[in-house]
Design goal:
This protein is of the alpha/beta class and 270 residues long. It has 2 domains: 18-81 and 209-269, Rossmann fold, CATH 3.40.50.450; 103-203, 3-Layer(aba) Sandwich (Rossmann fold), CATH 3.40.50.460. Helix content is 37%, strand content 17%. It contains 8 helices and 9 strands. The chain has helices at residues 18-27, 39-50, 82-100, 119-128, 142-157, 177-187, 211-229, 231-234; strands at residues 33-37, 62-66, 106-112, 132-134, 163-168, 194-199, 239-244, 255-257, 265-269. The strands form 2 sheets. Strands 1-2-7-9-8 form a 5-stranded mixed sheet, sandwiched between helices. It has a 4-stranded parallel sheet with strand order 4-5-3-6, with helices on both faces. Helix 5 crosses helix 6. The model is unreliable at 247-263 (pLDDT under 50). One of its GO terms (cellular component) is 6-phosphofructokinase complex. It catalyses: beta-D-fructose 6-phosphate + ATP = beta-D-fructose 1,6-bisphosphate + ADP + H(+). Residues 2-226 form the Phosphofructokinase domain.
Length: 270
């Protein structure tokens, strides 16, 4: 439980030959399929579900355990790994901030992972007190750059600390870190601001999993197998995401709730 990463290996590849997958499941007498992964795992489960009419071997329970630092799996609020990544991102941003405080006229652009999901960037900005988060869910334009320059110069004039921007890697290619830096320098007519870029890359995935991710991984594995073993919860050929979201209503027909002792876990039917 103290080791992160994937012991079995991982690949971001959708099922290309469903027929071969069905043959393998049939040959090995597989009666249930547990997929651990991010959005690609969710998408793969959907592909297998949609092919059930063509291949009887796919008419087995399929459960997806969300596991992605990007926290981008539909149907759940928490994916394994996202808490570990968030803790590491905050630690690194704090370290960067300690050095950047010496530059009162600085703009710090920090890029984090997350693909098209803005979860890491938005939550990291809130947790570290950053001035701006840039995510793909919001349209970012030249006017936003002008506002950043205006706000950054205002902080400089007030003698406050540096201006920090947390940018998600999944934002438009038009606004790469370098493009954003160049735009800020171009709009800073009086050359009041120095702009630095830090791309955290894979280091932000962290080393050992956080305590939260460890216990969540264990609990999700237990409840996934309970779903396989209890036909009343899964049915003979259901396809679900093992999810956790406190705001869901347990009365929804598309969501099957475990007993209250499960801690709010749900099987979200695809």
């Amino acid at each position: 439980m103290s080791r992160g990463g994937s012991e079995l290996g991982t690949k971001r590849q959708l099922p290309a030959d469903v027929e071969k997958i069905a043959e393998a499941l049939n040959d090995q007498n597989i009666e249930g399929l547990l997929i651990v992964g991010g959005f690609e795992a969710f998408h793969s489960a959907k592909i297998l579900q949609e092919a059930r009419n063509s291949y009887s071997a796919l008419n087995i329970p399929i459960i997806v355990i969300p596991c992605s630092v990007a926290n981008n799996v539909p149907g759940t609020c928490n994916s394994l790994g996202s808490d570990t990544a968030m803790n590491e991102i905050c630690r690194q941003i704090d370290n960067i901030g300690q050095d950047a405080r010496g530059c009162r006229k600085g703009v710090q652009i920090i890029e984090v992972m997350g693909e098209k999901s803005g979860y890491l960037a938005a939550m990291a900005a809130l947790a570290t007190g950053a001035d701006r988060a840039i995510v793909s869910q919001e349209n970012f334009t030249e006017n936003d750059v002008k506002q950043i320059v205006k706000d950054a110069i205002a902080k400089v004039n007030e003698g406050l600390s540096h201006y920090t921007i947390i940018k998600s890697e999944g934002t438009s290619e038009t606004w790469s870190c370098k493009r954003l830096k160049d735009a800020i320098k171009e709009l800073d007519k009086e050359n009041q601001l120095s702009v630095r870029i830090d791309v955290l890359c894979h280091a932000q995935e962290g080393g050992s999993p956080s305590a939260f991710d460890r216990q969540m991984g264990l609990r999700k594995a237990i409840y996934a197998f309970q779903g396989f073993m209890n036909p009343r919860k899964m049915g003979d050929s259901d396809c679900c995401v093992l999810a956790q979201c406190q705001s869901w209503s347990r009365r929804s027909a598309s969501r099957i709730a475990f007993p209250s002792s499960s801690g709010g876990f749900l099987l979200y039917r695809l």
